[in-house]
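ok so for the tutorial part 2 we go from a plain amino acid sequence to predicted structure tokens. step 1 is just haveing the sequence, like this:
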Amino acid sequence: MKLTCFIIALLILFPLSLYAHELPDLGDISQATITPHQERQIGLQIMRQIRADPSYLDDPEIASYLSNLGHKLIANSDEASAGQSFEFFAVQDPTINAFALPGGFMGFNSGLIIAAQSESELAAVMSHEIAHVTQKHLARMIAGQKFDLVKSVAALAMAIIAARANPQAGQAVLVASQASLIQSKLDFTRKHEKEADRIGLSILLDAGFDPQGMPAFFERLQRAGRFHENGAPSYLRTHPITFERIADIQNRTREMPYRQVPDSIDFLLVRAKLRAMQGKPHDAVVQFKSRLDEKRYVNEVVERYGYIHALLRDKKAKQASSELAHLYQLLQADPSTSVLTNHPLGKTVRVEYKNIIAGAMIETLAASVQLANGKITEAFNTFKTALKIYPQHRALIHGYAHALIQNRQIETALEFINKQLHFIQNDPQLYSLQAQCYALLGDKMLEHRALAESYMLKGHYAGAIDQLQTALQNSNGNFYQLSSVEARLKQIQALKAEEEKEEK
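step 2 — the prediction. this is what the tokens look like for a chain of 504 residues:
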């Protein structure tokens, strides 16, 4: 709930179109007072706080799915600027909410992803948030604030620290400092929410999703708010949904042809994984088992996939292995899969989903089950075979590297990580794993050099500088490595100085 308080405060701090009456009509004219680079830098400052919070879901499979869905919507949008970057991420929070931040960062609570009853509903919310960015709502608001926003973000950071020490006190700081802004600016918020609906609906339709997903999701949220006023979804508080807005969306979709869009297997697997991560491990196991026993599911493969995740969380490795064998038997009979080779689990066979993300998710889970049961050789074989089929799947890459390190195969792990970094240079987790290898090999200089890159990719300039300075203090006399660290230190110091200059 700490991160939830922060996000709610941010959404209040960014009540889209907070000063709309002081700014010109929508459009790129907003860039006359704030550049895309400046907006991105503000977003990065906020993201540093979000990434530092335990509620930030640093899960490559969930992030990959959200990114793929988001970029599918963007690719089919005439509104998206070629120079606008986007980053999609998830937050482990059962409340129903989503939010756009400056610089194209978009967060989605796990509760919202689970609450979406179809992929078109989730895509509707995402297209709405994309519209806030493409219509420059955030850039215009920041311009209206005349850059006092940076100071406000610093104040919120202090509130987060207070919340970690004293959750009630921290929440009081956040709520009291911003609550007075809500009602006074609500009318402008509604105006821009309506515009985001209109643009978002167009994006949704052009991307091939069911346009009815938008009014259906909003109607369900509004009913939840009406019948459970004290526990209304947080999406209603940060994105006010009125009868007028819903009626407007319904009028726009009424004349559109009926479009039945099946949910992707990726969407279903991600929702199952998130459900398995909710609440206490034992409770999650009971809930999945109950649905399977009573056959209350749409897709048995998806339900058993979630059940296995829940079993692993509950440290029931043997039962997870048995369920995995059952899952592969189901996959054999699934027309959307194809047989590849003998599977190391025994009599079952390895299968490949024609959908890349889904197949990789299942193989990653299989390796996790094998590791949990102490079947190290089998797990390594699963990783190696799966990586040949899905070479860019981050969870497989991270899982294999981590398993090698855990089993003291450090040289092999380092060779594998370095090879991956030739192709993937924007993954902080890979640099963190690389740092672990160097630490175990006793190379302090390269350990801190790798940690610096991990910090840098997370937007922590100061942390990266500290790590590089520590690396120089642990120089091993290699002239090439020393020169590389010194050059990188100068680059990051220049970036930090530029950021500090913009904040003044």
